[in-house]
Amino acid sequence: MGCRTLFFALSCILFAYYISAPIPENVEETWKVGTINALVKMLSFTATLFENIGLMKYEEVLSTLVKLDFTKPISDENITVTDTTFSGIPVRLYLPKRKSERQRPAVIYLHGGAFIIGSCKNSAYDLLNRETANKLDAVVVGVDFRLSPQYYFPAAIEDILSVVKFFLQDKIIERYRVDPMRICIAGDSSGGSLTATVTQLLKSDPVFKNKIKAQALIYPSLQVIDSLVPSQQENEHGLLLTRDMAIKMACLYLTSNEALPQAMRKNQHMPQESRHLFKFVNWSNFLPDKYKKNYIYMEPLLGKLNLSYPALLDSRLSPLLVNDSQLQKCPLTYILTCQYDILRDDGLMYVTRLQNVGVDVVHDHLEDGFHGALSFMSSPFYLQLGIRIKDKYISWLEENL
Ligand SMILES: *[C@@H]1O[C@H](CO)[C@@H](O)[C@H](O)[C@H]1NC(C)=O
Ligand SMILES: *[C@@H]1O[C@H](CO)[C@@H](O)[C@H](O)[C@H]1NC(C)=O
Ligand SMILES: *[C@@H]1O[C@H](CO)[C@@H](O)[C@H](O)[C@H]1NC(C)=O
Ligand SMILES: *[C@@H]1O[C@H](CO)[C@@H](O)[C@H](O)[C@H]1NC(C)=O
Question: Which ligand 1 atom lies nearest to the CA of residue 135?
Fold first, then answer.
């Protein structure tokens, strides 16, 4: 049997295996969702296989594929699109063409991809940012911050802060006719984590604290200290993103040492001296009852991991770890969460904590939603759910920015 035949046969078996996974009843487009889910899981399986036999690193396999989806900066009748750099960091800039009487709002968008893959050039983000620019008559900046594991935490955050600070200079704001009182930072998944972090940092900085009007977080990742919150247990083998994949990728943001993900899978990755941080992510206090179900809060076992990663205690990695007085400084916030998402409870806990300290929060929860759907908005991988998430986010911006 030839190699190709073998490969084809194996692919069929894998596909058959993954396509048979049950899809929750209320999820629409069952057949399409099942296919996309099976393809994503096969990709992850193949990437793991390639890594184990030493052919290619896990993230290299994923990023090779994701790069095939990159778009060129193509202007249309309404929007001028350019790839340029702000302070040396690559960005894609969307400028409305039509004449405007008043100054424009601006959105700085941070893409998802678990800190290791993806770009503002991916077709879904290009579509999203273009439509945001068009519908809001806004200037939109997609940021291509550095990725892990080539550049570990906090390289991405440093890049984004440079871009935002560059953009907020008077001369730049004036050049693009941006209203300095109507600037929002937004992102999905790991980009939602970066959005929350960067917003917190800017809001604590006397020079910039009044310059961010709003933040929008789409199914954000907001903590890596408790890996057994109810949504992580409920969606362990969930659609598109399994707990195993999420842990593998989250750890790659800090290290390539396998000991960290191994410990995190058991929720035994945090050091002894981190006990005081768990009150900030204690889901038994912050989740609405409806999501707690019959799960019982268990304190994680501390001090089992032999290695030290100071980043694990850092609120720039887990924005949920800031105290209430820090949190209070957050601006108007939009948070979208999905029911079938291991990251659901990160978003839900942030909603509760922000509301507890009086921050104005709009929360959309999609009962039939799952992680990553926003990345599927163009054919052949076109999901109604992706379009719905995009529309909810943009209409919130239209009303609030
Ligand atoms: C340009 O804007 C108009 C009005 O909003 C819209 O109808 C049209 O579809 C837009 N064109 C593109 C290419 O998005
Ligand atoms: C978490 O909250 C529960 C219920 O309020 C409490 O009993 C427990 O001590 C808390 N644990 C931590 C680590 O904060
Ligand atoms: C912990 O670290 C020590 C010293 O580096 C090493 O000898 C030991 O094998 C490690 N233990 C585990 C469980 O990894
Ligand atoms: C909250 O955190 C900030 C920054 O770490 C710190 O300066 C401040 O003292 C803390 N406030 C309280 C009430 O613990």
Answer: 5
